[in-house]
Specification:
Number of strands: 6
Number of helices: 4
Mean pLDDT: 81
Strand content: 35-45%
Largest sheet: 6 strands, antiparallel
Structural class: alpha+beta
Distance between the termini: 43 Å
Order of helices and strands: HHEHEEEEEH
Strand order of the largest sheet: 1-6-5-4-3-2
Low-confidence stretches: 1-14
């Protein structure tokens, strides 16, 4: 029975990115970079606000929940935002955006993985950075 539980846990974790570093290092992860004339703090706020509004909360009829984490490091000149799903104690990261100072403007790198269409998450995050609202 103990071996069966271990095998099940290994199978569940095999396709998951249990950290943002796992997400970045996977070969199946899609990566896109964008440049903006706006300050990185403004881009960070746009993406963070919409991600929290659209991408966090409990999933109906399940114990799973979507979580958005965001942290701005003003002294280092960048911020990071990520979305993950937590289910049965396992956390699976879907996308991560790193928004950093680039001269007078900013640069955003988005990593997306563990979904059928990684490009959809990147388009959504990019639209939020452009100032569009909506899920």
């Amino acid at each position: 029975m103990k071996q069966l539980k271990c095998l099940l846990a290994c199978l569940l974790l095999a396709g998951c990115s249990t950290s943002t570093q796992d997400l970045e290092s996977k070969t199946s992860t899609t990566v896109s970079t964008f440049s903006y004339p706006d300050n990185y703090q403004l881009i960070f706020k746009r993406v963070s606000d919409e991600a929290k509004r659209c991408g966090a909360g409990n999933l109906l009829l399940t114990q799973a929940s979507l979580q958005v984490d965001s942290q701005l490091y003003n002294e280092l000149g960048y911020g990071e935002i990520s979305q993950s799903m937590i289910n049965v104690g396992i956390r699976n990261f879907y996308w991560k955006a790193k928004i950093e100072r680039a001269g007078p403007g900013s640069k955003m790198t988005v990593y997306s993985g563990n979904t059928i269409n990684n490009g959809a998450a990147i388009k959504r995050v990019s639209a939020w950075a452009d100032g569009k609202q909506g899920c």
